[in-house]
Design goal:
By secondary structure, the protein is α+β, with helices and mostly antiparallel strands. Helices cover 29% and strands 34% of the residues.
Length: 131
């Protein structure tokens, strides 16, 4: 007895990874996610490694996690993976403040974001589409 196995949330040739609570705004994170969309994973990892954006290290870790999920959990070939999708979402926002002149209060918002990366195994003919 026991519970039934959960159905897969992605297709048979795809794998997913998600990074939450990244200390950056979703707008800044989306600039980094745009660097890797549609690229082969080797090229995307190289671009993230040499990017000057602070959050690119966290995105690189999430991409490496998606690659590891594809290889270990789903048995996909790492050499034929592309970044199929990379989307960004909002997370919590810490509300802080600072006293200002004449008794006023300046709001300081400290946003957090999350990123989801989906990698897909493709045939060798279409693997270099945007590389």
């Amino acid at each position: 007895m026991g519970k039934e196995k959960n159905p897969r949330r992605v297709a048979e040739n795809e794998a997913l990874a998600k990074a939450k609570m990244l200390k950056t705004s979703p707008q800044k994170l989306n600039l980094v996610a745009e660097l890797i969309r549609g690229k082969k994973v080797e090229k995307a990892l190289a671009d993230l490694t040499f990017s000057k954006k602070r959050v690119s290290d966290d995105v690189r870790k999430c991409l490496q996690s998606a690659i590891a999920n594809a290889e270990n959990n789903h048995g996909l070939d790492v050499d034929s993976l592309i970044v199929a999708e990379a989307w960004v979402g909002k997370n919590i926002t810490l509300k802080r403040g600072r006293p200002r002149a004449r008794g006023r209060f300046g709001k300081i918002m400290k946003p957090f974001a999350e990123i989801t990366i989906k990698v897909r195994q493709v045939e060798a003919t279409t693997a270099g589409e945007r590389a």
